[in-house]
Amino acid sequence: MVAEQKKERYSLKKSLETEPSWSVEQSTIFNWVSSGTGNLRVGAVAGSGKSSVLTAIVNRIPKDDRVCLVAFNVHTVASIAAKLPTRVTVVTAHGMGNSLLCRFFEGGTNIEENKYRQIARALVKELDVADLVESAMAEQRISGKVKALTERQMDESIRAQLRTYLIKLIDGCQATLIDPTLDNLRQLDGYYRLACPNGGDRVLPLVVFALDRGEDMARAEKTISFGDMLWLPHKWVLYPSVKDWTLVDECQDANPAQLSLYKKLLSNGRAVLVGDERQAIMGFAFASPEMWGNVGREFNAQDLPLSTCYRCPTSHLDLARYFVPQIVPTDSATDGEIKIVNPSEIKEMVSTGDLILCRFTAPLVELCLELIVSGIIAKVRGRDIGVQLVAMSKQVNAFQWTDFLITLGDLTRPKIKKLRNQDKDTEADSLTDRFMAVKACFESFGVECHSLAAFTQRIMSLFSDDAVDVTLCTIHRAKGDEADRVFILSCNSLPYTPKDALGWQLEQEDNLTYVAVTRAKQSLFLAPLGRDNSETEALCKRPLGGMRVTPTPINVEPIAPSIAQSSRTLEDTADIDFSLPKPQSSRTNNNGTPNGTYPLPQAASILFQSGQMVVFDGNPRNACKILAIDGNTATVQRGTVGATSTVALGQLKSLVPV
Question: What is the pTM of this model?
């Protein structure tokens, strides 16, 4: 043991001697670790070197202190753990919860990913849905479909929808730690837009039975799901070993169950919570949209920034700055490049190591199939996406294989139409996206499969979480990724603004755009997608390929785009200059703040409107939103919860038009 401690001290000394020259902002954080008190929240912009900073923080913590670093995913755990001394526990929140359950059971656990899916299937099987089937059959007769569903098939389809909804409610209860009362479940559905199907109310009482059955299975058989790893430690009041230091990465995307675990790690210890409010994108998975503010309050944390991006060229940051005004490049940053390309050119352009991003799945699947035909080793990241497409495909298991696509369309289109009529555009677009992805697969290799089993197996072969020559992934799965060259497919759909979205959802769509444009280290290729080739070619002639770089005002009803289609028409933008001028100076002063101001687009001369994003006195750090206009003055608000003030219109400049 003594020899190990000496070896670790020597390793620590050598690591400190070989550390890079730190910036003023980084040094301020290290000084807080060494001589400060309390807890710290670090606002780290994209590419700010969080992993390096966290490693350096550990090197400055007394060697006898107990340290736990909570990483966002298992890939991050492996990369960070390799850089840290063995005395530091590196774990994900789920890994921490699983360890607590293993200790509770005095042994291992049986992880069953589909545990609650099986429970939901059994519970929904007992429901009486005869009235729902009768109503759906009547609608089908009125529509006069050629490939109509039988009564049995309609029953199976309705039960599948109810099962999916029940599983979402179960997942939501476990992640948010809410009591599964009927009122709470309805609020959960409304806030997170869980796509309640027809008859969905009748599964609400089943949630408490499902959770109770899941808890009983855990106690009796040690069988747990991934959701159980976070929920059961809270339900059973299990506490991890208290640490002197708790370091948390990506804390802005934590859910309440994860936050509960983080708090249990601390007693009289200290915490460093690292994240980026503008990279909060996991609300769809029940991460709390208010988590960044909640973390600051719950831990009574002091705030320090990391505003320098060490990844992106200056041209990319000129684009990112419309969403995050404080992000700045390093002194050695190159100009880089941003190019608009036609999607048809991508298969001739890609090379090993390239990353292709898109807001939606279907365009990625279509392009992946094209790349594979061209002999390029490519995969779409996320096997769970493949599972969703397989589940949709299995709805037509009882049909003639040659009629597969027609039948799937007959099943799906009425659901999409109904959602549109109910102004549920987000759900309609998501369902359309999945249908178009399955359609692309069937048109590529469906006929040669001859059976559903063979077809679904081929679908799953497209998806992988392993590294390949060319990776395609949704933007949600790209956080933390980087590549020399990045393609953004269907760039004109960014930011995605469905008209039924809530304010927090629109903010997260803006955040997704920011994440997308900050992945590349050298080249960023914007590839728009229109409804046909002529529209795609027209979009390629527009600045940024039709992508909008204005954060969506949350109090202005946005226009909903179709999948792979810009929410603004070409006519809407014909008189607006979206060019991105370079800043007068992209460097920083000694205190880490930008040196100089950033010129704004020519569109700044347009009339001001309520809800418009503007800057005060020409400084992008003073970004704010107009709440009201009265004569020559405006009431503005900084951020979404900042203080309001009244300023003269002459002191304001538009970031970009609404």
Answer: 0.79
C-alpha dist (Å) from residue 59 to 13, 25, 271, 606: 9, 17, 15, 52
For residue range 400-429, list pLDDT tens digits in order: 788 888 888 888 888 898 888 888 888 899
Note the pLDDT of residue 588.
Answer: 33
What does the alpha-carbon distance between residue 66 and residue 73 come to, in Å, rounded to a whole number?
22
CA nearest 611: which of 600, 630, 624?
624
- Give the residues across from 25 on adjacent strands: none
At residue 147 the predicted structure's pLDDT band, cuts being 50, 70 and 90, is: low
Q: Which range is least confidently modeled, 103-107, 258-262, 441-445, 616-620?
A: 616-620
3-state SS, residue 339: strand
User: How many Å separate Cα 434 from the centre of its chain?
Assistant: 18
641: phi then psi, degrees, rounded to nearest 5: -130, 15
Q: Would you state the pLDDT for residue 395?
A: 80
CA 441, distance to chain mean position in Å, is: 25
Cα–Cα distance measured from residue 223 to residue 600, given in angstroms and rounded to the nearest whole number: 57
Q: How far apart are CA 104 and CA 91, in angstroms?
A: 18
Amino acid at 569: T
* Residue-wise DSSP of 577-601: ----PPPS---B-TTSSBSS-----
**Do the Cβ atoms of 46 and 276 come closer than 8 Å?**
yes
Element (H, E) at 46: none
Q: Return the structure tokens found at 466.
A: 């392993």
DSSP for 601-644, please give it: -GGGGSPP-TT-EEEETTEEEEEEEEEEEETTEEEEESTTTPPE
Alpha-carbon distance of 557 to 576, in angstroms, equals 21
Give φ, ψ of 272 to 5 degrees.
-120, 115
Mean pLDDT of all residues in 448-471? 91
